[in-house]
Amino acid sequence: MLFFYVRHGDPIYDPNQLTPLGKRQAEAVAKRLAAHGIDEIYASTSNRAIETAQPTCEILKKQMTLLDFANEDHAWRELAVVDNGRRGWMFHNPRFISLFAEKSVRDLGDDWYDHPELKQYDFKKGIDRIYEESDKFFASLGYEHDRHTGRYKVVAHNDKRVALFAHQGFGLAFLSCLLDIPYPFFTTHFDMCHTGVTVIEFKERDGYAYPLVLTLSSDSHIYKDGLPTNYNNHIRF
Predict the structure, then answer these.
(1) What is the pLDDT of residues 130-139, one digit of tens each?
(2) Mean pLDDT over all residues of the chain?
(3) What distance in Å separates the CA atoms of residue 78 and residue 64, rounded to the nearest whole number?
(4) How many percent of the chain have pLDDT more than 90?
(5) Which domains occur in the chain, in start order?
(6) Quick count: other Cβ atoms within 10 Å of Cβ 76?
(7) Is the four-CA dihedral 17, 22, 27, 33 of positive or negative sign?
(8) What does the alpha-carbon distance between residue 232 and residue 21 come to, in Å, rounded to a whole number?
(9) Do 211 and 200 form a contact (C-beta atoms < 8 A)?
(10) How far is 95 from 230, CA to CA, in rounded Å?
């Protein structure tokens, strides 16, 4: 199986929709995915993810399946923090970025949220929800997650190309689960841009699949269509 994770296009968060640029990005990524061929299309129940997935559905003449567990509103309640009166993702917060790099946190691995400075928050609940629902999702595609070994038991061989359109805040937790990389490690070293495409091959060997990242948050479709290449609207490449 080839799994495509696509972040939504340039957004307006209130009201929840794409900007005109975001809609052009969605059309660009749709042409790219149509060239690959996608067999199943999933999207978060958030409108900005649905609007991003729609052009791909139209070109490929496929229906999308909505996944509420991927809606970023849930992750925002569980994994965002309030600092100086403002709420934001902890992976954008300098204090948490610094804390995530400390050996005392890194040594806890998957149990990072048990660190004394993190235990006061409800991070475990949010991470457990995303991990549990993510595992159910991949099990429905034929792959049962074995967390002890960081691989997936092949219950049903799958040759399909599957795409999920969702978010950054949710997606970083989702991909950390999929790849068995502890959340603090993943969020301080990886990111994803608007309509960035991450492709992961479920490479099967001896009854198990080992997820292999082929590309991470690629925006080649943005270049191809001549759209502005400002990374998430703040860094120009």
Answers:
(1) 999 999 999 9
(2) 95
(3) 26
(4) 91
(5) 9-24+35-236 (3.40.50.1240)
(6) 16
(7) negative
(8) 12
(9) yes
(10) 26
User: How far is Cα 150 from Cα 216, in angstroms, rounded to an integer?
Assistant: 19
What's this model's pTM, rounded to 2 decimal places?
0.96
Where helices occur in the chain by DSSP H, the ranges are 20-36, 47-60, 72-79, 94-100, 103-106, 123-140, 168-179, 183-189, 220-224
Rg of the chain over Cα atoms, rounded to whole angstroms, equals 18
Structure token digits, residue 47: 């409108």
Apex 97 CA angle, 93 and 99, nearest 5: 120
Residue 92, helix vs strand vs coil: helix
Here the tokens at position 169 are: 């805040």
Report the alpha-carbon angle 40-45-48, nearest 5.
95
The residue-averaged pLDDT of 102-126 equals: 95
Alpha helices in 42-182 (DSSP H): 47-60, 72-79, 94-100, 103-106, 123-140, 168-179
Query: What whole-number distance in Å separates Cα of residue 101 and Cα of residue 37?
Result: 39
Q: Dihedral angle at the C-alpha atoms of 217, 221, 143, 75, nearest 10 degrees?
A: 50
**Looking at residue 76, what DSSP letter applies?**
H
Positive/negative CA dihedral, 103, 107, 108, 114: negative
